[in-house]
Specification:
The chain is mostly beta strands. It has 2 domains: about 10-25 and about 190-200 and about 245-360, 2-Layer Sandwich (60s Ribosomal Protein L30, Chain: A), CATH 3.30.1330.60; about 30-185, Porin (Beta Barrel). Helix content is about 15%, strand content about 40%. The protein has an 8-stranded antiparallel β-barrel with strand order 1-2-3-4-5-7-8-9. It has a 4-stranded mixed sheet with strand order 10-13-11-12. A hairpin with an 8-residue loop joins strand 3 and strand 4. About 30% of the residues are buried. Residues about 1-25 have low confidence and may be disordered.
Length: about 350
């Protein structure tokens, strides 16, 4: 069977196929996160009257604004720092906890697996000083914090994080190392790049042979002569089959909720137009193909692309297209049409396409 593209563009010409923007351009980094970390802290306080290390914890939440910047709020619990001089009666303990807010600056590295960042911010802690097991003073130190860290991405939702922090306290210095994990959520629906659909292409019957025609032209420049070209107005540079028709149609604007196979409302409008056109073309078989970029694990991407292809197929069946006319296949990141090393290329590679073939005997 020869593969063959029908003129779906006729049914889609009035549909807003430019809806949505590239996930990486607009929302790849616009994501919330929440995490917990074990804290290993060292505090030198009051001219070394306390110089001790403790183990505590840190709870934090943040928002990645874009590729470069993020915001973070955190609660720190450092526990008790103690000093036990030779005379027990002179024992000193300091209890320290409180809150901080920071701005994160991410390094410009081209990696899906690792992020490196520096941070600066403000803290406000509660501090209690005990001498001989009696609270003798309490205050609320505040000031500058600085830090740097490394994030290792396990998936689109989970990551490990290691960071160091320094807190400038009036009568001491506090250093902390945090080791923990975080969960990300709230990213916007994935969307294909805003690429316009091809101009409408009419399917016409092959023209009757003209005897002794001196020259047969190729008006659209696709390599198929006009006398056998069933799609005489294909766009310049388009890949065509032996009949002069595009072999594959990419459905720009068909998008899904983040990290799922649930179609967005704008996608349903586009697929309604697809179903209307397919209803008039019952002699074609259609394979719905799902594709992803290289962001994430291979097996995960393959499964997600299969689920999304099946979601499109199921919706077309609901709109009246016979199930025997439709199949679905997921290709994950295996069939890129652009460079996955760039944001623009990954946006183009996240797509749903339709592959056409004529039914036997047609």
């Amino acid at each position: 069977m020869k593969r063959f593209l029908i003129p779906l563009a006729l049914g889609l010409a009035s549909t807003p196929l430019m809806a949505g923007t590239s996930l990486l351009d607009a929302n790849e980094y616009s994501v919330w996160n929440a995490g917990v970390a074990a804290t290993f802290a060292d505090y030198k306080f009051d001219d070394n009257s306390v110089d001790d290390s403790t183990v505590g914890f840190k709870l934090y939440g943040g928002y990645r604004i874009n590729k470069w910047f993020g915001l973070e709020a955190a609660y720190h619990s450092f526990g008790d720092f103690s000093e036990a001089p030779p005379l027990p009666a002179a024992s000193v303990d300091v209890r320290l906890d409180g809150y901080s807010g920071s701005v994160l600056l991410y390094a410009p590295i081209n990696s899906d697996e690792v992020d490196v960042y520096a941070k600066a911010g403000y803290y406000n802690f509660d501090q209690e000083l005990e001498r001989n097991n009696i609270v003798t003073a309490s205050n609320s130190p505040d000031g500058l914090l600085l830090g740097a860290g490394l994030i290792v991405n396990i998936s689109k939702q989970f990551a490990f994080r290691a960071e160091g922090e320094w807190f400038d306290i009036d009568d001491g210095d506090l250093w902390a190392i945090n080791l923990g994990a975080e969960y990300r959520f709230g990213r916007a629906p994935e969307a294909a790049a805003p690429v316009a659909v091809a101009a409408p292409v009419a399917v016409v019957a092959p023209p009757a042979a003209v005897a002794a025609a001196p020259v047969v032209k190729d008006s659209d420049g696709d390599g198929v002569k006009d006398d056998i070209d069933e799609c005489p107005d294909t766009p310049a540079g388009a890949k065509v089959d032996a009949r002069g028709c595009e072999e594959q149609l990419i459905l720009r604007g068909v998008t899904f909720d983040f990290d799922s196979a649930k179609l967005t409302p704008d996608s349903l409008t586009i697929l309604d137009s697809v179903a209307t056109t397919l209803t008039r073309r019952p002699n074609f078989n259609v394979e719905v193909r799902g594709h992803t970029d290289s962001h994430g694990a291979d097996d995960y991407n393959l499964t997600l692309s299969q689920q999304r292809a099946e979601a499109v197929r199921d919706y077309l069946i609901e709109r009246g297209i016979p199930a025997t006319q439709l199949t679905a296949a997921g290709f994950g990141e295996a069939d890129p049409i652009a460079d996955n090393g760039t944001e623009e290329g990954r946006a183009l590679n996240r797509r749903v396409s339709l592959e056409f073939s004529t039914q036997a005997g047609q």
